[in-house]
Design goal:
It contains 16 helices and 16 strands. It has 385 residues and is α/β, with parallel strands linked by helices. It folds into two domains: 3-258, TIM Barrel (Alpha-Beta Barrel), CATH 3.20.20.70; 313-385, Winged helix-like DNA-binding domain superfamily/Winged helix DNA-binding domain (Arc Repressor Mutant, subunit A, Orthogonal Bundle), CATH 1.10.10.10. The strands form four sheets. Strands 9-10-8-7-6-5-4-1-11 form a nine-stranded mixed β-sheet, sandwiched between helices. It has a three-stranded antiparallel β-sheet with strand order 12-13-14, with no helix packed on it. 42% of the residues are buried.
């Protein structure tokens, strides 16, 4: 990792509103039938940015990510106001990556030129599936044709774009997924995020699954789908650089690398999380989740922070291990030792190497193998014990 990578600093901005709540989603997203007062929210975002920047001191922002929720429901002028506020209070690198998550509907795609003019230089499209039956089952409001049209518009508006797909869907076979994935790679210039469908507590899918009304692939079938994903993406030039993310070399999402490499980032907006080093201490920060409550807190206090915990050396090291081993590049065990004040257990490393779950490179970097990724949680737990 270069010195520039070590000094990366990200800003995450959370827009919490959606047109509808997808039945598999447990993110902090909210549906409002009344019009959203975007000007008021933009002022609140600017106020929280100012407060956060006062705490961090001088930083050079290397990446900005507007996530949600559905940020593409914002008017381009709102996005511009948020980016302007970031630029007023921090220095922004000339080559900063500025990503906006977008729904691939025709209405939202018409705003892409406006987002580009506002300063966005990369979009991430929530396509999720390339067939209409699956999209309906997933609660998505767009068709496969509409999604591909939006990808084409993104291709014209932005030099960099990505889209998401969900696999291990009910009834999906490896052959079906292979066909869909190859079609997706034909459309993807440089980056794909490919997530296995997970059943999260508190979602409509959780209730349907518990009642036996939603059948997802069993463990063996899900593993077969994962293996197909790795094989096809590697063959077609988009190898995994993180357990669920695939890119052509050099096209990785720089903002997400900030998280996985254990670097600093500020979280702005309702339910946003941040990790900041202040006076030599790593702070784990989170804001109020409910949009209207966050808004009132910011208007009263200049910020919506409700959690601000100092992480111990051990907690910071464990977080570094948990996030870093998601990456194909792995981690430098010396950084873990510097954070934790102790080395990783050599016997545990040897045992996991023998099992084929991890590898140790010639420069000492420790990484999870393709065989180890499907059992990543167990590998991390073993190393951290």
């Amino acid at each position: 990792m270069s010195r520039a990578d070590q000094e990366a600093f990200g800003v995450y901005v959370h827009w919490p509103f959606c047109l509808s709540k997808c039945p598999y989603c447990d993110f902090n997203s909210h549906v409002r039938h009344a019009a959203i007062d975007e000007d008021r929210f933009a002022r609140a975002f600017a106020a929280e940015i100012e407060t956060m920047a006062a705490r961090t001191g001088a930083r050079t922002v290397t990446s900005i990510f507007l996530g949600g929720g559905t940020p593409s429901l914002m008017q381009p002028k709102t996005v511009g106001a948020i980016l302007d506020a970031i630029g007023r209070h921090w220095q922004v690198a000339s080559d900063a990556e500025v990503t906006l998550e977008a729904n691939p509907t025709s209405v939202e795609a018409t705003r892409f030129a406006g987002y580009r003019a506002a300063g966005v230089n990369r979009v991430s499209l929530g396509v999720q599936a390339l067939d209409d039956a699956s999209l309906k089952e997933l609660g998505r409001l767009h068709s496969a044709r509409e999604a591909l049209d939006a990808v084409a518009i993104a291709r014209k508006a932005f030099d960099r774009y990505s889209f998401d797909l969900i696999y291990a869907r009910p009834g999906q076979t490896p052959a079906m997924w292979a066909s869909e994935l190859k079609r997706a790679i034909d459309e993807a210039a440089e980056h794909l995020s490919l997530y296995q469908l997970t059943i999260e507590e508190g979602t409509p899918f959780f209730g349907l699954h518990a009642a036996g009304k939603l059948r997802t692939p069993d463990e063996a079938a899900a593993r077969a789908l994962y293996d197909v994903t790795q094989e096809i993406c590697a063959q077609l030039g988009l190898p995994a650089y993180e357990i669920s993310n695939h890119a052509r070399p050099g096209a990785e999402c720089r903002h997400n690398l900030v998280y996985w490499r254990g670097q600093e980032y500020a979280g702005i907006g309702p339910g946003a999380h941040g990790r900041l080093d202040i006076d030599g201490v790593r702070h784990a920060i989170a804001t109020e989740k409910r949009p209207e409550s966050w808004l009132m807190r910011v208007e009263a206090n200049g910020h919506g922070v409700v959690v601000d915990d100092d992480l111990s050396s051990e907690e910071r090291a464990d977080e570094f291990l948990l996030m870093g081993l998601r990456l194909a590049e792995g981690i430098d065990p010396r950084r873990y030792a510097a954070l934790a004040g102790r080395r990783l257990d050599a016997d545990r490393i040897a045992s996991l190497r023998e099992q084929g779950a991890i590898a140790v490179d010639s420069d000492g970097r420790l990484r999870v193998t393709q065989a180890g990724f499907p059992v990543l949680d167990a590998v991390v737990a073993d190393l951290a014990a």
